[in-house]
Amino acid sequence: MDYIEAMKELASEVLDLLGEGLWIPEKQVFSRQIKDVQSDSVLRFNHYAAVKQQGPFSKGCQEDRIGFGEHSDPQILTILRSNDVGGLEICLNDDGLWIPVPPDPTQFYLIIGDALRVLTIGRFVSARHRVLANTCGDSRMSIMYFGAPPLDATISPLPQFVSSQKPRLYRPFTWGEYKKAAYSSRLGDCRLDLFKPGI
Ligand SMILES: O=C(O)CCC(=O)C(=O)O
Ligand SMILES: [Fe+2]
């Protein structure tokens, strides 16, 4: 419980700084969503067991396995902590270039979620990421805090970001609707596409 409260505080501070960086007059516009008592934020523990070598002809360490398939996190902001076992990778561009993220148990890692991407019309982008488990080394463990709005909160770009050059890309939807879409689609699907106008 203390950990969740501490993560909520940390996420709120980071979101306030992001709001400030975007010159948003009401700088708590993002953090108040996750501070709301009805916030749908969750904590998840992940454990990726090291994959055992398959036999005399296996390729050993080269034989990487997907531990968590590629996806973007649907919420506003994720705070990740892990042990010192690697495996996390982020996709830097549309060409599918995967970059390993070095593990550091003394650090928190931040991942922008789809909801923040929509609220800021892409000024912050929800990076796709995945986890590989491989045949050498120990098990990776991570604790994920997903900061989310209340289920009935509307996810729609802040008016000051909308312009003729930057029109809204999706119809307004509630976090509850988006969460339902996320859980009823495949992990790697781009769920935001479901909310494009006319679909
Ligand atoms: O375990 C990790 O390092 C990342 C897991 C993840 O991306 C997730 O739980 O959404
Ligand atoms: Fe994730």
Automatic annotation (TrEMBL):
Domain of life: Eukaryota
GO MF terms held by the record: dioxygenase activity
Residue ranges annotated for the Fe2OG dioxygenase domain, each copy included: 38-149
Name recorded for this polypeptide: Gibberellin 2-beta-dioxygenase 2
Species for this entry: Hibiscus syriacus
